[in-house]
Amino acid sequence: MNRFLGYFVLTFVFAAIVWWSDPFVLRALAFLGAAVGVPVALLATFLLWCASRQGRTRPALVQVLRVLAYAAVLGGVALPLNHQVFQRAIAEAKAWPLVLRPYLEGYRTVHGTYPRRLQDLSSHPPLPRLIGKDGYGSDGRNFTLWFGDPIGGFFDAWVYESSTGQWHFSS
Prior knowledge:
This is Type II secretion system (T2SS), protein G. This protein is α+β, with helices and mostly antiparallel strands. It has 2 domains: 1-87; 93-170, Pantoate--beta-alanine Ligase, Chain: A,domain 2. Helices cover 60% and strands 11% of the residues. The chain is built from 3 helices and 4 strands; from the N terminus they run αααββββ. It has helices at 2-20, 23-53, 59-111, and strands spanning 136-138, 143-148, 157-161, 166-170. The longest helix has 53 residues, at 59-111.
């Protein structure tokens, strides 16, 4: 029972990290885990196979395989959860122009143009996790928002143009 509680706590902590982490960090960690985990799993399997053919058991290797199995289970849980996190973050970022527009229009009414940077606003709503401080730009007449697509490649992005009021995908 004590071991089950430990696994439950580990899974809960892992799920919390996946839920609140930056999607790009999760992608890097997944790549690192695959780059290290797959060769280690193959080596441990080979060494365990060699030990079993000689009639010996190696408790350390069995423990390594057990840890790798737990990591595989957590990875299997993380993939669908990670996809949900990405979808939620994208929806939050795409809804942000409607929230931000009143602040920008107030600035435009006072100054005659949109602010060049978000920092020029006296206040603005909290930034979504995908749209950073550098995810806004303006030429004065129109403004643009953008964020990297966490599901796509490293150069894939979503771009919002105030002139059209639409998001479009750019790669």
